[in-house]
Amino acid sequence: PVQNPCRRGYRFGYAVDLMIEVPSGSEQIVVVGDFKLFSPAELFDYFVQPDLLKYWWPEQASTDPRVGGKYRLTWPDMNWILEGEYTAFEPGKHLGFTWSWNHEPDILPKQVDIYFSELADSTRIGIFHGPFEGDSSDRQGVVEGWIHFGMRLAGLRRTEEE
């Protein structure tokens, strides 16, 4: 099993927020990011509250934020729907959920686990997403998606603070 990179002591050495892929096995991707000026609880809320989610990720969102609750994120112009069920819900610490796209009905749902760890002036998240089978073609797109949208999320706080 892959260890939580939030506890590994990764040092990025950058003054800005950063999202990177951490080497992992072929079945799972791991992306780590530091979010300046966010507390773990605030950052967690941006993943589960519809009004906050819409600032950085989907055009529309509905959530039932609790273990067993469902979420639905939509991009109407593309006719894309991402939906699933919350599998872990520890505010400011751990969020888990299943991941299934409407336009990929033949792909089995994935599991996403996000761990939140407080640093001196920021919060580090570790995103674990999988399983991927063998040489999965969608793996790189998922990595790029997490990095892209993570940087959009990080930019929200910078914009608010400037």
Structure description:
With 162 residues, this protein is of the alpha+beta class. Helix content is 24%, strand content 37%. The chain is built from three helices and eight strands, in the order ββααββββββα. It has helices at residues 40-48, 50-56, 139-161; strands at 18-22, 29-36, 60-63, 70-75, 80-90, 94-101, 110-118, 122-130. An eight-stranded antiparallel beta sheet has the order 1-2-8-7-6-5-4-3. β1 (18-22) and β2 form a beta hairpin. The longest helix is centred in the last third of the chain and has 23 residues, at 139-161. It is globular, with a radius of gyration of 15 Å. The termini are far apart.
Keywords:
162 residues, alpha+beta, eight-stranded antiparallel β-sheet
| Biggest sheet layout | 8 strands, antiparallel
Helix/strand class: alpha+beta
With helices defined by DSSP (H or I, 4 residues minimum), what is the helix count? 3
Report strand order across the widest sheet. 1-2-8-7-6-5-4-3
Strand/helix succession: EEHHEEEEEEH
Give a concise summary.
It is built from 3 helices and 8 strands; from the N terminus they run ββααββββββα. The protein has about 160 residues and is α+β, with helices and mostly antiparallel strands.
